[in-house]
Amino acid sequence: MPTHPLLRLVTLLLALALPGQPGAADPVTSPAPAGPETLAPPAEVPSGRPQLTLDLTTHAVVTGAELGLIGLGVALKDRLVAPTCRWCEPPRLDRWARGLLGWDDTRRAAITSDVMQLVIPAGAIATLWVQAAPHGQREVLEDLLVLAESASSALLLTEGAKYAAGRLRPDAWARGSTASPDDKLSFWSGHTAFAFSAAAAATQIARLRGRAGWKWLAAATLGAAALTGYLRVAADRHWLTDVATGAAIGTAAGLVVPLIAFQPADGRRPAVLLAPAPGGLAVIF
Fold it and tell me: Where are the domains of the chain?
């Protein structure tokens, strides 16, 4: 009489589970001495990629407002720039670096730095897009929005600092005269701040998402951003301290904005919080 396949499976599992009986070919062995009962540690379950959430509406409004303020500042440049330089003489370090790093062909250095300013964010966008696309269009949108917010934050800070400092650019200092309002907007370097903010933000987003290769992304993008800063000095458009400060501000924006924007989906406390404080806001780590 044929047996049901399920019955065969049950019989096989029982046979594997029950201890075998000693036979002629199976010598009887003495039982192992009894000892303290130990429990094996539970098997570790590999953790998945971090689950993050983002308030798209809030951060889209913030990014749009920042871009609007940047555009307004550009439109009102002639009115916002100081009539005369407020910071006219460079320190000895800047004069030394200008003589050491400056190119004879400053125009070529300036054009190359302009190209780098486009290449770095384009590369960051492409990398984040390719990495996020397998996880859905929502993740692509989130990553690109946080990248844009990081860069716009750095640029807005840069624009305010330029108008407040009124620093003379190296080429205008060497000429002894200014040819345009832009000649008094040296501090700090906008090219450098923008490049470093895009590089740092792309790296931070990839790291927070748990993506492989984020260290290689950091090396490539931050190296390119450093080259951009060097080229701004070589082009005689910025002092060394302009570039160093722009690199610090851009990196800070690129690292901090993603930490604030992304929230853990499991309800854990985020890495960085903005909380009301007397006289303004407090950053809590």
Answer: 95-284
